[in-house]
Specification:
It contains 3 helices and 6 strands. The protein is of the alpha+beta class and about 160 residues long.
Length: about 160
Amino acid sequence: MTKLDSAARPIFSSIVGIAVLFALLSNAWGESDDERIVKDLVDQFLITLGDGDLDALPAMFVSNANIGTASLREGKWVASTKTFEEWFSELKAETTWTRFREPVTEFTVHIEDGQMAFVRADATFIVEDRVVSHNIDYFTLVRDGGAWRFLSASYVARPVSAD
């Protein structure tokens, strides 16, 4: 073993040790299973709604859930609050359905004691490959019988100008 090998061995060991520590800390600071599950549920809700698969929606919500909206329309803010049942009945009464996509660009998730989740989803509302609005969606989910379900779904929609 040369002098260089003797000097390099502790440095190499230190680098490996730091890399292992970094990997362990990354997992500790990473996304929890509950965070991943609620984000997936929000994505699934937006996909299901956008595809018009309305019959799949009730199973995602608790019985006393509510829906709230605030939308900027023709320069004025319009707000609405409804029970899930009122909102769902209105959707089912629609005679035509315009499919849409609402991909989420950023999530913020807070989970309290593994029982309640608060999710903010920044999303882009797209119809026929045209961006219609930038939406900030807020969801409150509760653990119900072991599964996460929506207690509240609300959004603020700001139209994108057609420049």
